[in-house]
Amino acid sequence: MDIINLKDAKMLFKGFKFGMLLQFAIGPVCIFLFQMASLKGFYIAETGVFGAALIDGLFIILAILGIASIIDKKNIKIGLKIFGAAILFIFGLSTVLSQFNISFLPGLGTQNISNSNNVFIRTVILTISSPLTIIFWTGVFSTKVAEENMRRKDIYLFGFGAVLPTILFLTIIIFIGSFAKEFLSAEVIKIFNIIVGCLLIYFGIKMILKKETLT
């Protein structure tokens, strides 16, 4: 039993190391959750962390089920690219305009984020909209599983380990962000929110203008 447990622990650790690769790419979800922590505090922002982890887990399950061959089709990639860019642009524009009390779309401005459900749902949408995340989990994860020649139990342990860095890394990010709520003035927070909105718009424009295929 001890040997089995040790093997399980090693497989979890392998998954953890692999999952850390994605965390080094600071993207829209990370920026959004830092913003939420600075606006709403640690605990509400943490619900968004679990939203991101939930979607990562879903993508891993899809990878295990062999969905990578479908995602890899050119038309699917283009569709994901357009969808992701639109989501980022809309979220970003809404964030910027809401700082000037202008409502771009009802309910999307930061002033309308009043509880943990809002943050959870928005994080889920942002995570789903990221082609990088989709391609990473369904493509690279599938390849890794095949290379390691894993048993079914090993695959799930590896996948669970790969999700853990999402929770750990983003929790650290919002912990840092929560200090901004305590130490920064309302005007500084407003400027920061405008910057966040502009960054989301930038991510969206960059995504749609990128000519090379998503790999």
From TrEMBL:
Origin superkingdom: Bacteria
Compartments (UniProt record): Cell membrane
Chief location category: membrane
GO MF, one annotated term: amino acid transmembrane transporter activity
Keywords: Cell membrane, Membrane, Transmembrane, Transmembrane helix
Any single Gene Ontology cellular-component annotation: plasma membrane
Alphabetical list of InterPro entries matching this protein: LeuE-type
Spans through the membrane: 21-43, 49-71, 78-100, 120-143, 155-179, 191-209
Keyword Membrane: yes
Keyword Transmembrane helix on entry: yes
Membrane topology note: Multi-pass membrane protein
Stored Pfam families: LysE
Protein name from the UniProt record: Putative threonine efflux protein
